[in-house]
Amino acid sequence: MNKVLEPARPPSQAHCAAHPLVGMRGVGKSYGPVRALEAVDFDLASNEIVGLVGHNGAGKSTLMNILAGVVQRTDGDFMLEGTPVARWSAAEAHRHGIRCVFQELSLCANLSPAENTRIVHRGLRGLGWKKRAGALITAALDRIFPGHGIDPHLVVSNLSIAERQMVEIARAYTSTNEPIRCVILDEPTSALGHTATEQLLAHIRRAASDGIASILITHRLNEILAVCNRAVVMVDGGIVAVRSTKGLSRSELVELTGHVEAPRDRQKKDRSTPGRPIVDHRTELAQDKVVLAAPGEIVGFAGLDGHGQRERLRDIYKTMKGGQTPVAYVAGDRGTEGVFGLWSIADNLTIRSLKTLRRGGLISDEASRTLASTWAKKLQVKAPSIDTPILSLSGGNQQKVLFARALASDAAVVFLDDPMRGVDVGTKQEVYRLIRSEAEKGRCFVWYTTELEELTNCDRIYVFREGRAVVELADEAIETGRILEASFGGGNG
Amino acid sequence: MADTAVSRPSAGSFVVPFRRWTGVGLPTLALLVMLAIIFWIRPAAMSYFGFTLLFKLAIPLVFAALAQMLVVMLGDIDLANGAFVGLITCVSAVYLADQPLVAIAIYLLLIASYAGVGLLIHTRQLPSIVVTLGLSFIWLGLAVMVLPAPGGQAPAWLSAFVGWRPPLLPLPLWLAAAAALAAHLVVSRSSIGAVLRGAGANPRAVERSGWSVLAIRVCVYAASGFLAILAGLLLTGLTTSGDANIAPAYTLLGVGAVILGGGAFTGGIVSPVGTVIGAMTLALAGSLLSFLQVPSTWQIGSQGFILFLVLAGRVLLGEKPS
Amino acid sequence: MTTRRLPLPAPWTYGFLFALAMWIATTAYAGIGSAGATLSSAIVFGAFSVVVGTGQMFVIASGPGNIDLSIPSVLTLSAYVSMTAMGGRDDLVLVGLLAALAVGAAAGALNFLAITLLRLPPIIATLAWSFIFQSFAFNFGGEATLKPPSLLSQFAVWRVAGIQVMPLAVILVTVAAAVALRRSVWGRQLLAVGQSEPAAAFAGIPVKRVRLTAYVLCSTMAGLAAFLLAGFTGGAALNMGDAYLLESIAVVVLGGTSIAGGQANAVGIWGAALFFNLMATMLNTFGIEVGVRLVLTGVLIILVVAVVPRGRTG
């Protein structure tokens, strides 16, 4: 059964040295008058790992979509092993061994992992195709994520987000009669837990030594420094720097993207009087801690991804929604749970506050516009006007509007559902500052995050394991080592 | 190591067969209960001849429901299905006996126009519900033009076929089984079926893998037109004449059968076997009500009630909402 | 989504433009003398389509897949109940109106209950109820036509200074619906729910209550249409609602409301309703046979949806 699993033979070294696997010269993309990608040069050798860094809207995805054949370039030359390529499509890219793991999950949720594998491999057909596809994807999963426990014939909608991501990654590394030469990974780890992330990074290194190049796009710069040979930095649709990662530091990398990383300033708040909690939520489960939060407090939910943090957060929100204390929720999954795609910034921002905008029974246009422009300004939403359609904003700016929606409301408790996923460093810093200043004014935040460093903004955190809040840490005790220890159940867990 | 994937107990081994069972099992259960009631009231119906009578009119509906299922599989809906079947009965009753070549040419043209509808819906990104709403007027109008008043004559061979008595099982059951098996193999089992269902659920992903969703939609619509033509032919054979207004109910009964059989409007989730059984269940409900001597004024209401009853079973068995 | 910014008229105006074209064509054929009569009859018949269409619009705007197929049977049932309640007596007209509205409201609530409790797709839930309502109407009225009180019949054709009052009242309904969509809390919440149910829930909107209101309003509008239509046509009849199944959906979509939900236009329904009725008149005037007339109707519906630019795809 392993016959089909052998990675395609890497091209000979001599051939490689003469021509990079991929060569782009002056490749650009315009949508009408809008320039999404300036003329860029980009090379990739066949055993290389390249990290692609930059803000949202810097052009990373456009560049990769061109490489994957999903988007057509409007100018420039594209060469594959030195041969110029004129026509390029998703099918062509696949035939030449270029695979892509897209940022938004692109599995068909109604099909099994085996059937999803069939969709990318035209060779999987005829009698017994399902069995072969199942064996193919299972072998890839076993190789990359040993101990994954995923049934290849179970419909994908029954899998967790992390498991779906694993299937999608593994699928990109499967091969039948077509070679694999380059895998593009767009934010592959944002949905993965700690162990799976480590497994993936190790696999990327192994694959490179077998001659499969990888391009890694991630906001987690440490991952880039850990596995990539080169870092390519993009700003505003152009490549501004290409550096070897040898000796490169994290802050240098951040600086190249045009941001200065703010030092962690953990102000000592005088919290002598924590006040009466306004969130008081307990569950039926044994050893599950009561979640308490008082006005002015920032309470974090930590733990490995998928251990019940989000469920608890939603549970608390649903219990409190429509009750005595006004609450608001900032969703992390902007596209499906956050924005109203047909509406402008103003409409999106005011929807949570309509009742207070009524004058004589009807919503006042003037009051709405005042509210919207005040908060759009406060959060520095970058847009021509508050009437701009929300979908024309970058992801980070959309997220700011969602923050503004919650903060402009009368909510005393604001729930944050991992809202910074995939948001660039600059936006993050602005929002952290705002959250702290709002907390000082007496608002209460309950914050679930998958990014360990964000937890340092919290006054108190609950660490989750296997669906329960098992450990509570406060102030100075909030520190990476202890959080990880509690997440894995070591020590006093 | 307590990583997510490892620590989560694998629910699959139990959930999967269970959910598969509710898709096909519920309508089957309803079908068996109805048959049991009918046989209890009139034991004589439990015969080769009785089965033929009970399921005779279910067969065109089975094919119409499968045609609807293909469209629902792509996340669309065909509100013109019933009117189309009516048109086919008119064309068949007028041309098929005397000018079979004309009839066949018309059928091919109609299949092509179904494909064209798929093309139009895809390229202009139109809501299928509105396009097929307009189509229902067109099919009805064409049917009235072909055959202004009910009449015509089905060809003798067609009437003979639907009156044929094959060995072992009555013809309606053979046809239903054959249709269910063929559709199951193509849609649920084959490798191309996986791509088709994938295109219904996540067209972008399928497009990115190098498939043309446009071509898929055109082919699936053409196939749907073909099945609807089969439905119309069988109905012509049964009624021996054509009528533009004979089958408007097929549209919604067909949709009902697809949903009853475990399908969902979200696209990509359909069960051919469930659809066939769902169609037979809905058709049998009519016979059951007359056996129970439900007054005719309450019959249609009772049909609605039965639809609710069977679908409520899904909730009771805890299936995920569709 | 592609945002081509050509200077095209807004989608909802197309109904009016097409209607105008039909009117001009009819007048050109039949002579200028008939122009006024053609238009006023289109307005009266259009008013009924507008009432049911406005209700359907609320339901369709509440999200993809939401649609009410029970409108015809609710309409018929309401008409029977209302006529029975009045028993032809002028002093009970108000009671009859309330009865029609109450039947409608109850039907809407039942539709929504089936959708949420049994977790059914709205198409199936409203279809099953429509069978049941239809049976009730059968048993209520039988084959007989129940006559309305003369006061109601007079109201339906009442003119003040040559202007018909009933369509004017329906115009007020349209204005109210348009204001509700733009400026009321419920209207904004409805459009939010229609765009994204999870996003609406996380923005603090009571999703179920908002949708329930949409379904109840829709069926209540069907009840109102039943009351007016029975007065106009001389009573309740079994097939009086049949034409409104497809027409209620068609006028909403041609009126510029997105079938995918989240975006609605109340004024455009008038344009679409006038278009439908003027088209029928035009084809009648031309003396075209019924088959061709149906084909042309279908072709025009598809043409209009295919031609009209949309902000978002369904």
Automatic annotation (TrEMBL), chain A:
This is Sugar ABC transporter ATP-binding protein. Coiled coil: none annotated. The keyword DNA-binding does not apply. PROSITE patterns: ABC_TRANSPORTER_1 (PS00211), ABC_TRANSPORTER_2 (PS50893). It comes from Jiella pelagia. Pfam families: ABC_tran (PF00005). InterPro entries: AAA+_ATPase, ABC_carbohydrate_import_ATPase, ABC_transporter-like_ATP-bd, ABC_transporter-like_CS, P-loop_NTPase. Keywords: ATP-binding, Nucleotide-binding, Repeat, Sugar transport, Transport.
Automatic annotation (TrEMBL), chain C:
The keyword Isomerase does not apply. Keywords: Cell inner membrane, Cell membrane, Membrane, Transmembrane, Transmembrane helix, Transport. The keyword Transmembrane helix applies. InterPro entries: ABC_transp_permease. It is found in: Cell membrane. It is a multi-pass membrane protein. The chain crosses the membrane at residues 12-32, 38-60, 92-113, 120-141, 161-181, 212-237, 290-308. Its main location: membrane. The complex is composed of two ATP-binding proteins (LsrA), two transmembrane proteins (LsrC and LsrD) and a solute-binding protein (LsrB). PANTHER family: ABC TRANSPORTER PERMEASE PROTEIN YPHD-RELATED-RELATED, AUTOINDUCER 2 IMPORT SYSTEM PERMEASE PROTEIN LSRD. Part of the ABC transporter complex LsrABCD involved in autoinducer 2 (AI-2) import. Probably responsible for the translocation of the substrate across the membrane. This is Autoinducer 2 import system permease protein LsrD. It comes from Jiella pelagia.
